[in-house]
Amino acid sequence: MTRTELAARLAETSCERRQIIAVAGSPGSGKSTLSDWLVEELGRSKPGVAAVLAMDGFHFDDIVLNARGHRPRKGAPHTFDTGGLLSALQRLVERPESEVAVPVFDRSIEIARAGARIIGPDVRTIIVEGNYLLLDDPVWAPLRQFFDATAFVEVPEAVLRERLTARWLGYGLSGEALETKLEGNDFPNMRTVLAKSVAPDFVVI
């Protein structure tokens, strides 16, 4: 399925009841770009009808990660506040008439900003995006009860490796630091997503 086909399918199923769509994929797959594009497409006829809720906003802070010895693995499944994401989804489903403040991850400072985005009652489609939304894991599985549909962005592993390498080169990493970042964190996270995600409703290529 192409992204255009996915957008058309979501537009067909949109209704008065708020719908929550999960977009998952490996690091470097382009799921954030796809999610932002879907919001733009769904909002062409009625701006503000869709919004993104990013999993990255629920990163544990570095203070917590350092205390637990998990800072080198930041971005791995165990470094996220899944309970916080679960609570946000529950509020969005159970209180569609209310404004819900959600966090947004600021990559420039590696910190999640609390209440950085407001999802209001006019938002009828919420695109939740993140690596581990479909992870076959007891910590992550409870999230799926809130998804009306799920999509997985499928990208060949070789392409993912190229993109992840280019990403960190762009941030100025090189040599041993780059190797440590990729082999010690990004590539293991990529393999976890590819090997342990449950089947989605839609595969986007």
UniProtKB/TrEMBL annotation:
UniProt entry keywords in alphabetical sequence: Kinase, Transferase
GO molecular function: kinase activity
Gene3D superfamilies linked: P-loop containing nucleotide triphosphate hydrolases (3.40.50.300)
InterPro entries given in the database record: P-loop_NTPase
Name this polypeptide is given: Nucleoside/nucleotide kinase family protein
Gene source species: Jiella mangrovi
